[in-house]
Design a protein that fits this description.
The chain is an alpha/beta fold. Helix content is 43%, strand content 17%. It has ten helices and ten strands. The protein has helices at residues 3-13, 25-30, 53-61, 83-96, 129-146, 168-179, 187-197, 202-212, 245-257, 274-296; strands spanning 16-19, 38-42, 66-69, 100-104, 107-112, 115-123, 151-153, 182-186, 218-223, 262-265. Strand 2 (38-42), helix 3 and strand 3 form a beta-alpha-beta unit. The protein starts with a helix and ends with a helix. The relative contact order is 0.14.
Length: 297
């Protein structure tokens, strides 16, 4: 096979998808597009066994491959992943047979007396050996239950973690090495943390962050945008804007480092039209193809 043929094969095998939100359910079923290769669903929205959820999943799966993204697993929780939650998560995975399964490297579950409570948010964990051991144990348990690889995603932390014993990317790389899990790299999360705590050397921080990861472990890339703030204000990861120029630029670097990773456009608040969301996926596809073409020339 020629080098150019290998290039085109790589582009064709690299998927570009969008996050599916309920405002777009009807359009996703009736207005399919070649710009979207797969849809990501949030697991917790599809746990129901009755009503319209099962037939909708069946219908949408006829048009698109699906990925399942968890937001409540709490892989960094010292009290472990809730058994009832994990059972429902596994049932959904078995029902959908997704192309990718993912959740976050964060803390959500806690124990108060005899009651297990969920924080309702993605809370940061300390990047040290004790937290790594907890994360590894929970990932191992989940992967055994799923019978497949789980991807773990970096989160936005609104506290300064520069004094932690390990850097975030180093921590995630170690988890991937110890468990065989994959990594989901959210580039906007990298940039938000960088703008909040490494603004003086943001470009270097983001590039070094990506270079720390084992390239073969990165299976998916998330792209998003956040609302602009005044200088000195904390940037919030609200997923309410188009992918930022800085995120597109970092994406080009990430393509070189992780050429086989799937790409997903995230847009959760101030949702655009379905057509506008597909345009963002089309931009990602263009940048992906152009960047890989340049790499082969």
């Amino acid at each position: 096979m020629s080098a150019m043929s290998q290039h085109y094969e790589r582009v064709e095998s690299t998927r570009v998808g969008v996050g599916l939100r309920h405002e777009h359910y009807n359009e996703a079923l009736t207005q399919t597009s070649h710009s979207v290769d797969f849809l990501e669903i949030h697991a917790e929205n599809f746990f129901a066994e009755g009503g319209m959820i099962p037939p909708f999943l069946e219908a949408i799966a006829e048009y698109y491959p699906l990925s399942i993204h968890g937001t409540a697993m709490g892989l960094g929780s010292a009290s472990g992943v809730d058994s009832r939650y994990l059972k429902r998560f596994c049932e959904l995975v078995n029902r959908v047979n997704p192309i990718l399964v993912s959740d976050h490297a964060c803390f959500t579950w806690g124990q108060v007396g005899n009651q297990r409570l969920h924080a309702g948010d993605l809370l940061p964990i300390t990047y040290n050996r004790a937290s790594l051991d907890i994360l590894v144990d929970n990932i191992d348990r989940v992967q055994q239950a799923l019978g497949r690889q789980l991807l773990i995603e970096n989160i936005v932390s609104y506290v300064d973690q520069r004094s932690d014993p390990m850097h975030e990317a180093e921590f995630l790389a170690a988890a991937a090495t110890l468990t065989g899990c994959g990594l989901l790299v959210d580039l906007n999360n990298v940039l938000v943390n960088g703008r909040n705590f490494h603004a003086h050397n943001l470009a270097q921080y983001a590039t070094t962050w990506l270079k720390t990861l084992p390239s073969g472990a990165v299976k998916e890339i998330h792209l998003a945008g956040s609302s602009e703030v005044q200088p000195g204000e904390l940037v919030v990861d609200d997923h309410s804007q188009p992918v930022s120029h800085a995120c597109w630029a970092l994406y080009q670097q990430a393509i070189h480092m992780f050429p086989g990773a799937a790409t997903l456009i995230e847009w959760d608040n101030q949702l655009p039209t379905w057509e506008r969301l597909q345009e963002e996926a089309g931009t990602a596809r263009f940048i992906l193809a152009q960047t890989l073409m340049e790499a082969m020339s």
